[in-house]
Specification:
56% of the residues lie in helices and 0% in strands. With 163 residues, the protein is mostly helical. The model has no long low-confidence stretch (mean pLDDT 77).
Length: 163
């Protein structure tokens, strides 16, 4: 059946996979981080290529063809998987990770809550959603602004004292 299907772009394939899962254009656009117009354009292109009347029919044909044929170039896990080069380390504590009760003093908890206001430290991987990233950037901007205002007030106080 794969021979009867024309060549589809990777973007068209992604859209068809999500259509087959029951997503509408708006949801597909959010998942793929593209505009809803781009999703509709890709689906219209596929409908023309496959000569089918509906997006559901196009998705059904594509999924059937994808299941029947092997995927050249897809990742095949190796039989031998070497150990990691560096041991994994615990990421820096953040406001998301729960703390063990009674393990730290009150001041240390306060310090950690202040530092958790900024971006994560310690080279932890960024597993935040788009909203989480925006919130982290806003937090970093606010923390920077507070630091600059504090520094300016400190400098102004020094000059007043010296004058």
């Amino acid at each position: 059946m794969q021979e009867s299907l024309p060549a589809l772009s990777e973007g068209e394939k992604q859209c068809l996979r999500l259509v087959a899962q029951g997503f509408n254009s708006k949801e597909i656009a959010r998942k793929l981080l593209i505009s809803e117009h781009t999703v509709d354009q890709r689906v219209r292109t596929v409908l023309r290529k496959l000569h089918v009347p509906s997006r559901q029919e196009a998705a059904r044909l594509f999924i059937m063809a994808e299941r029947e044929s092997p995927h050249p170039g897809t990742y095949q896990p190796l039989i031998y998987q070497p150990d990691r080069l560096a041991p994994t380390h615990d990421p820096a504590p953040s406001s998301i990770q729960p703390e063990k009760p009674g393990s730290q003093s009150r001041w240390l908890k306060l310090l950690r809550s202040i530092l958790a206001f900024g971006p994560p430290l310690g080279g932890s991987t960024n597993e935040l959603s788009v909203d989480g990233r925006i919130l982290a950037m806003i937090r970093a901007a606010v923390l920077t602004a507070v630091g600059v205002v504090t520094l300016l007030l400190l400098i102004a106080g020094v000059f007043k004292t010296l004058a």
